[in-house]
Amino acid sequence: MFALVMGVIIGLILPLQTSINSRLRRSVGSPFVASLISFTIGTLFLAVVTLGVDHQLFFSPHLFSQQPAWLWIGGFFGVVYLTCNILLFPQLGSVQTVILPMFGQILMGLLIDNFGLFHAKVSPLTPIRLAGAILVLIGVVVTVALSTWLFNRHEARTTSTQAARGLWLWRLLGIFAGMLGAAQSAINGHLGLVLHSSLNAAFISFFVGTLALIVINLVLRSPRQLIEPDHRPNPWWMWLGGVIGALFVLGNVYLVPILGTGLTVVIVLVGLMGGSLLIDNFGWLDSKRNPVTLVQIVGLLIMIGGVALIHLA
């Protein structure tokens, strides 16, 4: 029971991280600077935890020659995933910023399982799993497209073709980011086996991501200033995104051996959906308020049913 409750809680906190990092971006003026701050804080947090538990941070350099090159790029995929979420949040709101990457994760997860990518255990794409994926797609369409159409109809207004295309480009970016997020999870899972420590794997992933973001910010010459948007003091909680991200990674690392990957995904998804609905409906953490509709709730329930069918069938 404790593991189930923990799964819901770590799912709830991930949408909070996206809101927090989006607020941080407003104060630092760049999504890449916001990502760097978040990754740096998360790396330091994981370093302390890893030292306390494993009493070491790094590994033998011989592993670089003994293991495939892709084993070390999970952190870079995490950078893309986190930065895309920061970019998506003000464009699409909390609910879509959660469900579109989640849809991408499910698609990539099916590919990884079917072909055994990243040394994952092969799980062929059965008719039941395919039916679950179709159910998830229906849930996405209901939540995103149908709810948007009903909203525009209710408001008696139309969106320009150019603006509509722009929104769908953002949505496709969210799906792509989710696919990279799934690849990161698979890579980090294998890295944990190689290092004999899930904690150490999580730290290495964050450390690589931090190094990648340092290079990106240097190349882009990102702004190095802290402002106060709307002439209001910056909230203390805008620095907590990295800690929440680290807790999310650690939570998944802890739960998968206990519940299994399938049940972990479903339980965390329930928390993700609940957290995103709460943030959108109440406008928490200085986010734009987007009241939740019955159509969105129905779509999310369809998605959860599809995910359950994929992983628990």
TrEMBL record:
The chain crosses the membrane at residues 28-49, 70-92, 98-118, 130-151, 167-187, 199-220, 236-255, 262-279, 291-312. Keywords: Membrane, Transmembrane, Transmembrane helix. The keyword Transmembrane helix applies. InterPro entries: YdcZ. GO terms for cellular component: plasma membrane. The keyword Transmembrane helix applies. This is Integral membrane protein. It comes from Levilactobacillus zymae.
